[in-house]
Backbone:
């Protein structure tokens, strides 16, 4: 159910933790709608409100970081070149590869784990 929300982490491109959070928000809104017997658009807007409250701050932070790291078209080319240089390095796939790029090429020293990973 959460995957239908198309929850993509903007910087790393992952989405499983976000989809799971989205599913929990959808279930919470659905239970409340059933209990209230109210399936109106206004009542079901709770789902969006729960998503905004839960994922919104993280999305805002990731968008700011993404803009800081990838503000020029050349930045994407640098990432592609970095990944191509390390095609055989299994650690360089997905989010971990993005973390390696940020550390090695952009000097990023902050946390590498998704803000929603537990």
Residues:
């Amino acid at each position: 159910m959460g995957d239908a929300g198309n929850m993509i982490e903007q910087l790393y491109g992952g989405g499983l933790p976000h989809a799971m959070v989205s599913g929990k928000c959808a279930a919470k809104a659905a239970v409340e709608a059933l209990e209230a017997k109210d399936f109106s658009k206004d009542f079901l807007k709770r789902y969006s409100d729960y998503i905004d409250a839960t994922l919104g701050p993280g999305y805002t932070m990731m968008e700011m970081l993404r803009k800081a790291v990838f503000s020029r078209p050349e930045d994407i080319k640098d990432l592609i070149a970095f990944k191509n240089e390390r095609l055989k390095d299994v650690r360089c796939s997905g989010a971990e590869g993005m973390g390696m790029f940020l550390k090695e090429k952009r000097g990023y020293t902050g946390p590498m784990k998704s803000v929603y990973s537990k």
Summary: Residues 46-69 form the longest helix (24 residues).
